[in-house]
Prior knowledge:
Helix 2 (51-61) links the parallel strand 2 (21-26) and strand 3. Residues 214-227 have low confidence and may be disordered. Helix 2 (51-61) packs across helix 3. The protein has an 8-stranded mixed sheet with strand order 1-10-9-2-3-7-4-8, sandwiched between helices. The protein has 227 residues and is an alpha/beta fold. It contains 6 helices and 10 strands, in the order E-H-E-H-E-H-E-E-E-E-E-H-E-H-E-H.
Amino acid sequence: MSRYMQGDCQQVMSKFPSRSVDFILTDPPYLVGFTDRSGRSIANDKQGDWLFPVSREMFRVLKNDSLAVSFYGWNRVDQFMAAWKAAGFRVVGHIVFTKAYSSKSAFVGYRHESAYVLAKGRPPLPENPLPDVMPWAYSGNRYHPTEKPVSALRPLIESFTQPGDIVLDPFGGSGSTCVAAAQCGRRWIGIELLEEYRAAGLRRLTEFQRGRPAAPASVSQEYGSMA
């Protein structure tokens, strides 16, 4: 049963059985207090008190000998790494996504996104390992201020899971991971704290199931779980 849930991901995951999901792919807040040009922000993006308990829940609900992939804030890598290792994860890979544009410029122009590949136990190696440098298409951030492109997430799901596996995204945002999982023939569970973004994700998933692209406008209706 695939579903997109609203709530605090630590509390929601605490109700999941242990070792119940096959793969985690997520893009948590980077702990930098990000606000985009239109004023959109992300919940819990300033304080990191959630990082250790959420990482522990992620480890608990993930099946033995399975993988998680998490984006992170590069200038907060010490906090993310400490939480992942304390939870029990082992770092087994690092992926850099190269952009054709700068999302911001300071001492350098920021033209990449990155994610760590984390293992619980000893997962089997993929048949055709992905390169650790991959392309990145601009999403337009239509539904979420830090929206990840589905085209960048699909290869991760295809490489690290099998058809019918359950893909979990505890920080679901506007549902890019769930859309990618649906496109790959996987089951999915998304969790998002802010109803505005969850509603946008549900609309994207509904439109995908109907075979039509979603419009960028947000949706305010309350939806039940997705089948």
